[in-house]
Amino acid sequence: MKHSSSSLSYHDARRSFLAIIALRALFFTVLLFGLDRVVDFGSNPYLLSTATFLGTLMGSWIAFQRVRLFATLILTGTLYLLVRGGFEIFFQLQSQTPQEVIFPFAQLLHFNLAFGLFVLAYLSAWIFWRSYHAVTLEIVCFASFLLYLFSGHRHFRFSDAPKIIGELAWLFGTTHLTILILLGATLALLLIAYLTIGTLPWKPRADKYGKYLKSHTQYPRLLGGGAIVLTFLLLVGGISRQIFFQYHQSALSLGSNGVGLSESSEEAIGKSPLGFHSALGSNSQPAGLVRLDGDYQENPFSPMLYLREGALSDFNGHEMVEAGKVYDDDISHSSLNTTFTRTEDMDLLERIPLVQSIYLLSEHKTAFGLDYPVSISRLKNPAPAKFKAAYKVYSLAPTYSREELSIYGSGDPRWSNEKRNHYLKTHPDERYELLARQITQGMTSPADQAFALADYLSQTSIYTLTPNHDIDPKEDPVAPFLFGDHRGYCVHFAHATTYMLRALGIPARIATGYMTDLSQAKDGHILLRMSDRHAWAEAYISEKGWVPFDTQPEQVESHADTEVDLKLLEELMGLVGPGEELFDEDLLEGETGIEEPTPYELPGKELILPILFILLVLLLCTKLYLRFGWLLPSAHRRNIIRRYRALTSCLADLGHYRSEGETREQFIHRLQPPISFDNSLLIQALNRTNYQQKLNSPSSKELEQWYTSDMQAIHALPIWKRAIAFLNPASCFAFLSGRLS
After folding, report:
1. 140-196 pLDDT, tens per residue?
2. What is the pLDDT of residues 376-409, one digit of tens each?
């Protein structure tokens, strides 16, 4: 076929055929290697990729032959049975030692998997070349598979499969949510690109008898196609940005059993970083590395270690919220960019100094440390590519025992009446006091009473990430837990304990931060994860300070707890060295060349919505031009072409396109049924105008009659089909790609 501007040669189609085979094989290979990282096939991915390539090659070749698919499937199945029979005979001839039995069966499993992928690739390739709608089916199946694969991350449960989210988050030093959104946007763009490549105008196609069909087309309109691609890029990028900012705070504040990251004191007063909605599951994202610069064998909560970040001591009638420095003055409330110092409280007994170097791997707003921090100073970041910030905490760590606490009272005699009443503000529901007194009957020691409450909840509560309590926002969210099914997580336990302690006249509050297991530490180094974020109740014991009374449920229904990644811990240990302290930010004032980098932001909804509106308007204008462009003033020949284009645009929206080498008359005849054209007079008018003298062109009145006659065949279709066709933008894309002819 001679190459021209209006049609593509056989060599173009052949190159397209080979390019699509290569792209499909490459796509299968990348997909298999990616899935192998996620689900671990157990077989060599190179073997599986080879099988899919051979299946793609064979399916593509068979699609253009006169061989029936059923015959090839019978031949392939027969070959499989012969190979399988050979394996069986080979097994029987071997001796029956365990090693000699297991090895052949393992090879058979590899063969079954490779053969299954071969058949899958073969069938998909055959359908791809035989059916124009195969690309849509493949994209729907692939998108459904991706949704199923990543469905484990619903509600920010990033510890669930696939683990590749966590691996990429650590590799690039970002959050799981960021990786999930970027991965979703990338896959969406790949699906769009695959849809574009799979429906290229010059894509060859075989009919049901294997006959080679050529698409009659022009080269795509690069300007229009480029505008569509750019619009899709902006839309995907903008939508991804909106999704990120919509769920970013939720992922941070709710990514670990409903426990959030505290804000600075001024911003957090009257608020709570906790939530009583369904727990969002553990998040295995690394949060920080803690190095204990000294032994702490006297830890009264061993092997657990509590790192306090904030406190909730004010009851707002609904839940516990932050009260700020006025009351909780033992909390540093310091940001990561400032230093903090206070005078040691000499009235607190049974404490030793302990230094912690903390290197953060995720974003935090407030510094945290062990129990009672005396000073917090910034450290030089040893690895900015990995750590977000680094600081050193000097704490007075407790060394008391549980037995020693029993002889002390509660509260601090130095408190004012206002402060004491603040920590004793009770819940109006009398059931908290009745239950608390029932549990602590006969006990007089505040510490013993607190331990009794914590033990009661530990024995009766069921730890679950999905308590499923249907609660009105104005109602008490703790009551369905404590006076109901006892299903909840740390937020429920901490609130219930605090309410009952206050009902007994014991000053109490809720602490937030991290609880980690020292048994998984190595050489004094502790790897904190987002799943270690925690909320626990604290009571003030005289001369001891705020003491944790934490619930450790004996019944666990669901908890995505995982072992600490020792390999990652060792890697981080190799990055940190002796801490080098830094000065405050105010010492840098007046220095030149010190600027905060300006973060790049994707366009927001203020730009996305106008772009989307412009895109819809352009599609609508294109559609109207294709359907009614013949109404515009134009030369007689141009008017005939526009009327014919109106006819073909209707057919394109109904899913009918003209093939290469197919005349207009053959195209119209091929459409019967479902569209019955008796004899297209409009096509005759176009042919007479193109190939005969202008004197033979129909008059305007005749043209109007012929156009009306041809459109009656389309108007005879059911109204719902015509309505869907009008909403279908296929003719617009076909016009921009040069396929509308």
Report:
1. 888 887 777 777 676 666 656 666 776 777 677 677 778 888 888 888 887 777 777
2. 988 888 888 788 889 999 998 999 988 889 999 9
Beta strands in 550-669 (DSSP E): 555-556, 659-660
What six digits make up the tokens of 162? 């696939």
The secondary element (H helix, E strand) that includes residue 418 is helix 417-423
pLDDT band of residue 278 (cuts 50, 70, 90) is: very low
Contact 232, 189 (CB under 8 A): yes
* Cβ-contact 494, 469 below 8 angstroms: no
> What does the chain come to in residues?
741
* Sequence ranges of the domains in the chain: 10-253, 255-587, 626-737
Q: How far apart are CA 700 and CA 135, in angstroms?
A: 42
Q: What 3 state SS string does 3-66 have?
A: CCCCCCCHHHHHHHHHHHHHHHHHHHHHHHHHHHHHHCCCCCHHHHHHHHHHHHHHHHHHHCCC
> What are 652-696's pLDDT values in tens digits?
888 787 776 677 777 777 777 777 776 677 777 777 766 655 546
Strand order in the sheet with 304-312: 369-370, 304-312, 508-517, 533-541, 545-549
Distances (CA, A) of 666 to 683, 687, 706: 11, 13, 18
Burial 177-200 (b: 16+ CB within 10 A, else e): bbbbbebbbeebeebbebebbbbb
What is the distance of C-alpha 316 from the center of its chain? 35
